[in-house]
Amino acid sequence: MHPVIHRLISLSIISxxxxxxxxITYHAEPPRxxxxxxxxxxxxxxxxxxxxxxxxxxxxxxxLFIKAISSQLLINGSEFGxxxxxxxxxxxxxxxxxxxxxxxxxxxxxxxxxxDPALINQAQPFRLTGVFSHGVYSLPAPLYSxxxxxxxxxxxxxxxxxxNQNPSK
Length: 169
Known about the structure:
The chain is an alpha+beta fold. The chain contains 3 helices and 8 strands, in the order αββββββαββα. 20% of the residues lie in helices and 47% in strands. It is elongated and about 85 Å long.
């Protein structure tokens, strides 16, 4: 075979392989997240634990296999707590699901400054940020991270009066 033809064939094969690899990149849209409920689990002198339930909606036309979630909740611009969950969740394409995670807060003084007693009957601004770690269904290890952020208002008086259901607006 002529060397020029051999090089053309080799170059064509390499080009095809490189173009095939370009399709492997991942472009998922982050899920939409809303706070569904917040419930106090236990209180200790310097630490409180809450159950934070999130309503998560997949905006993609393919499922997301969530392996873990890490989040941070800010209220009135101050850190309220951090949440984690290692519960695997298969979020169907264009589906939604409730996901529970344990939220920990480390200081009673911090909470007193975050939740202004004079404003307890009024909605207070919150911001929830975090990361979904996800990957392929059959693999236990996460392959990708998708950050998320949501903000709105929490009404703590309504939250306590309604039995911890639907605290956010």
